[in-house]
Design goal:
Elements: H1 6-18, H2 25-29, H3 36-68, E1 97-106, E2 109-117, E3 125-131, E4 136-139, E5 150-158, E6 164-175, E7 180-197, E8 201-207, E9 213-220, E10 229-233, E11 239-245, E12 253-261, E13 268-278, E14 285-295, E15 298-300, E16 304-311, E17 316-328, E18 334-337, E19 340-343, E20 350-359, E21 365-374, E22 382-392
Parallel strand pairs: 1-7, 8-14, 16-22
Antiparallel strand pairs: 2-5, 3-6, 4-5, 6-7, 7-9, 9-12, 10-13, 11-12, 13-14, 15-17, 17-20, 18-19, 19-20, 21-22
Length: 423
Amino acid sequence: MRSVSGPVLARRWAAVVAGADDYRAPDVRTADRCAPAERQEACGMSRYFAPVLSILVVFSLTVPAFAQGPAAPIPWANKMFLQDIEKNPSQPPPPVIVQDFGTIPYGTLCSHKFTITNIYDVPMQVLDIRRSCGCMEAFPPLKVLQPTETAEFLITMDAGKFKGPGSQTIHVTFGPRFISQAIIRVTANSRADVTLNPGLIQFGTVAQGTTPTAMAELRYQGKQKDWKVTGAVAPTGPLTIDVKEAPRDSAAVKYYVSANLKADAPAGAISEVISLKTNDPTAPVIQVKVAGSVLAPLTLSTNHVQFAGVKVGEIVSHKVILRGTEPFKIQPVGDAGDGLSVVDVLPAAGPAQVITVRFQPTRPGPVRRDIAIKTDLKGGTTAVIQVEADAEAAAIVPVVPAAVPAPPTNPGSPIPPVAVPKP
């Protein structure tokens, strides 16, 4: 068999790679223009290489399919991040949890708080967290989530560590009995020509009932000479917004964005977003984050106490810490009924007080009661502790009678029956 020239082999292999219906098509269709010797070489080599090339074609088409393998299953842990999962636990999990912060000034510190729910019948906890970028942080709950229990999961993104569109991923592993890895994709567009200083409007920790103001400077250093903020969309939270433009200069366009907290703001975290409208067609809306914490005059380490499986007559207790914005006293509570009482109340004033909720049931059955803890703080601030308890009947220990010695036997008289005392 004669050897085949390089151009002939090259044409045949190009036809195979291109997916031609017949791998010999380039040679056959040009045979009338080939010399007899070359045509004979082509036909001979085609017969020789036909089985080999057929195997190569099948292999090239099937190997990628095997390499890809079956599609990866969607992690069931994603369902724990859905907001309505408690009402509809049978809904399928999404392929990925998405949090989009939108278009934000460079340097913005973004944050979002998820509420995760354990809808499964086994305890769940976060075992591991992996981030695709140092601009991301994740703060998972430290406790073990019992079935139906919820907790907060906080993520943050520092837009001062990247410019332009950014898409990062956080992998959250849940377990330990059943393992699943939730996927959170966080996106944002960090505008290099718009900066915010500081990275968010931060109130810090403020007392409830006060009306503080926090502010940040928005600066535009782009090419649009008439760039301006045309309006602001205030958040639904307890804030009023004000945007003022500073005198313009050749260096930059500056605005002062301020937020004022309303007096009726509830206690808890402040997490709001201000949407600033601009005349920039490429980014008509810019998001500004507002954060802080409103501290109630009186806070409790817990407002829900549970006692389960307590035998009648047993004594169990649970300590509760109360903290105030100023030193305070607690008025005596004493007996709260149904075997509940509050003890160890100190008479001296202090910024924190520790009380003990005690339960000593006198009869079996459930107990549900709200205990009011009154203080001498301004306005007579009162805290309420919800107590749920279940009392069980005490176990009855059977009385074993003592052995009664038998009387001496008399062969001439019958033995009378022994009277065993009844328990």
